[in-house]
Each structure stands twice: as structure tokens, then as C-alpha cells.
Sequence to fold (155 residues):
Amino acid sequence: MADTKNIANILFPPPLIFLLSLIIGLVLHWRDPVPAVPSAISSIMGIILVAIGFFIGFAASGAFRRNKTPVNPYQETTALVNTGVYRYTRNPLYVTMALWLIGIGLLVNSLWTVLMVIPPVLIVHYGVILREEKYLEQKFGAAYTDYKSKVRRWL
Fold:
């Protein structure tokens, strides 16, 4: 019997995974502050990473809008997006969230918060991306397989 639900069946919403990691990192920093980098450069590094994340995220969202397919992974994907920022990474929105997490960690100069990028990247990789890739391969076949062979998953 075919599955009537034509979505990727991801385990958790990626923004919540990254947000939870941010909160944990900030709580750890509040309890035991450990600087990530020399304070003279932490703010500028943080601002740069957050800004790059905004640029990538804005470009990725725009590509979804132009292709008339939802960004929300709990909705059916209607088009394969492989233009713009998607020529360089298959997951620019997850790259954006990782950059924001690291950038905020640097803004508050918290090693804990910077290191907290590791759990969501692993959770998103195994609980979201692999499921999305399987779904996209089933939905778009050779077009997605070809795209996947040419473009990196993260960076």
C-alpha cells in the first residue's frame, strides 16, 4: 500500500533543534563562562557569521519562492531547487542555522555555545537530511541523484 503522505518524514523540526542547542550553550556559558576566542575579535567574528547566515538563508528562501515550493519540510516538495545558493550546498538553510549558532556563540564569546553546533548538525544529518534525501530521490529520481553527485551536502 502506497504512503499517502508525500513528505520527507523528518524526525524533528531543524530550527527547534538548533534553538535548543543555543539555549543549552547559553545556559552552560552562564554557569561556567569559557571564552571561545580573544574578546577583541569575538564580536566582529560573530557579526560576520550571523550576517553570512542571513545572506545564505535569504537566498535559499528566495530560491524556494521562485520555484514555488514550500520551505517547510512538513509540506510536500513540488520542485527540485538546484539554482542560486543551491549550486554550492544542498542544505543552505541548515548551513544558515549552524552559522547563526556559531555566530551567536562568538557574539557572547562562549565556547560552550560554539561547541553546541555539533549536536544539532549530527541530529539534522541523521534525523532530517538523510530522510529528506531519500524522499527527494524517490520523488525526483535521476534529476536529484545527478544533483546530489555534483553538489556537496553541507559546504
